Amino acid sequence: MPSTVPSIYYLIVSALIFAIGAVGVLVRRNAIVIFMCIEMMLSAVNLTLITVSHYLNSLDGVLMVFFVMTVAAAEAAVGLAIFVLLFRGRKTIKVDEINLLKW
Amino acid sequence: MIELVWLIPLFPFLGFLFNGLIGRWLNLDKRIVSLVACSALGFAFLFSILVFFSLLKLSPEARAVVPDKVLFDWIVSGDLKTVIGYKIDPLSIIMALVVSGVSFFIHVYSVGYMRDDPGFTRYFAYLNLFVFMMLTLVLANNFLLMFVGWEGVGLCSYLLIGFWFERDAPANAGKKAFVVNRVGDFGFLLGIFLLFAHLGTLEFNEVFAKAPSLDTVTVTLITLMLFVGAAGKSAQIPLYVWLPDAMEGPTPVSSLIHAATMVTSGVYMIARCHVLYNMAPVSMAVVAIVGAATALYAATMGLVQFDIKRVLAYSTISQLGYMFLAVGVGAFSAGIFHLMTHAFFKGLLFLGAGSVMHAMSGELDMRKMGGIWKRAPITFWTFLIATLAIAGIPGFSGFFSKDEILWQAFNSTHGHVYLWAVGAIAAGMTAFYMFRLTFVTFLGRCRASEEVKKHIHESPPIMTIPLIVLACLSIIGGYVGIPHILGGRNFFHEFLAPVLGGLPQGAGHAAFSLVGDAFAGGSAVEGSGVNMEILLMGISVAIAIIGISIAFYLYIWKTEVPKRLAQRFKTIYTIVFNKYYVDEIYEACFVNSTKKLGTFLWREFDDGVVDRSVNLVAGLMLWFGRVLRRIQTGHVQGYALGIILGAVIIIIFLIR
Questions:
Q1: Which ipTM value was assigned to this complex?
Q2: B interface mutation test: which of A25, A29, A41, A83 has the most B CBs within 10 A?
Q3: Going by C-beta distance under 8 Å and a sequence separation of 6 or more, which residues neighbour residue B575?
Q4: Stated pTM of the model
Q5: Which residues pair with B80 in a beta bridge?
Q6: Are A102 and B641 a contacting pair at CB < 8 A?
Q7: What is the domain partition of chain A in residue ranges?
Q8: Contact B633/A22, CB-based, under 8 Å?
Q9: CA-CA distance, B270 to B332, in Å (whole number)?
Q10: pLDDT tens figures, B101-143
Q11: A7-90, what's its fold?
């Protein structure tokens, strides 16, 4: 039996990536960077799903991952289009400067 | 035939529906409207007569126990079960006869009187509704249905007093009548509630059957409460103030509602409840004293008024006082007898006054009249007959009924010589002011303006025929109740005796036996009683003649004397002329304090408490909004932080 990396390591890595992504979403100003952070969080989730799927010896998680990846791709297209339009309108894509929607 | 009693109120109701809904809507011709209104009353009168005669066929004992005609259940709720049902007994059928009969003639008269009024259809709709309500009142077999009629006639009274509502005076008079009547109705309602609380039923038969189980205090309280209601409706002290003002309505209305029928319903109600009143001597005394006081008090105000309708209004109050005096001393049938004769002659007097107004281009002040008897002879002679009847001249109906009341006030076990004296003095005043009215209005020199003089004319036959009919009734109406002492047979009392019992027996009771001649037989005191009764009869006739003579002296012979008398006794004259300032006192005490209370509640309670608390809640919401909207910063990352924190908290809770 070949030695394998225990599942817990995968999970720890995925949690770390997710946390990095979440912090990035909260602290970065540039919308594109925030967007990339979100992608990171999605990837972390994918990694978790695959790990658990492997651990349970089931394909359900793997199936889920394909969906997430599809959604992420679509999201990338829509999100980038929004940023382009935002930039045209307001000459910036810094989220703290885009704060018209308030009281 | 007796079964058909429910048709009596039905016809006026149909007339009301037709005129009130269809007639008003389609703007029907006046001939159709008046035909429907009058024939509705004609049928009601016809059926009253039919029921009356079929009742007459029964034996006297059977008449009182005719089963009620129950149409259907009305309110069934818990212990309370009320039906729409009509009571048929001598008392209710006499009332139905008087109401439908007098109403019929006044309807006919109104066709002529209201001919040119734009509200013709409305008038007849109201009038029919009134008769329906009045018949409901007198025929009802339970207190609740009676109360419906009671309120219904009050409503119609309000509507008809304020018939010409474009002017302020009638509108205010209607309002006043309505409000004052509410005070009385409050007492009436409390009486009904008390009855229900103690006996658990409101049906007359059951109430009177169970009544002996009540203790004296309760029954006194109940009867006093009912009397408050009667005093409001029948314009007794202290609630009489609305009736003089009610004269703002059309004259036939004053005749029908405020003289002949509605105002007598208090007397009817007390006679109907005589079982209760007989158990409460205190209430009887109160009724008698208030009645006698009102009779005298209202008569004094009638002495000095110049408005012919107001004189008649005070006269009505005074005569109602007599009726209450009668029922208060236990002579219930005497009260009902006077109610009937009064309906004839007072109805006639008002119609006569209407005819005079018709002749005088609407003038009401008798100082501007005079000498019109030649130009309006039928009005004059019928008016004179009614005046003789109300003055109590022997041979006319008023003599029999009034004299009987006075005799009962003296003789009955509940009576007292003072009650008799007050009644007799009021009778003298009545004779005086009524003849003053007749003399000044119809005789002497005409004091009207030339313009009015030219138009003085007799009213058309449609108005004079009712006058003649009522004049006949004013004469012959009394002969159904001739005192035994004058050798007659008192049919009226014999008819009512099964319901109301005999007249109370006093010192000379034998002379007045109703229950039959059995009493009249071997009583030792018969002789003195007979003499006493004849003596009192003589005195009251003498007082009436003195009153007439004084009126003749002052207003025909020495016409300048009244002015000098008024000068001489200026203070008293002013006080009486201004109706003892009672209206002003009421205004100051009750009306103003109520207004002040209203203003206080409006300013302090409504504005200060209710509105302020509503505004407080609204202000609080505004403040919350102002504070909480600060959360909405517009920074997306702030929201993201919130989401994450929330997710973290949920997760912590989940995995713990």
A1: 0.84
A2: A25
A3: B581
A4: 0.80
A5: B77
A6: no
A7: 7-90
A8: no
A9: 8
A10: 999 999 999 999 998 888 899 999 999 999 999 999 999 999 9
A11: Helix Hairpins (1.10.287)
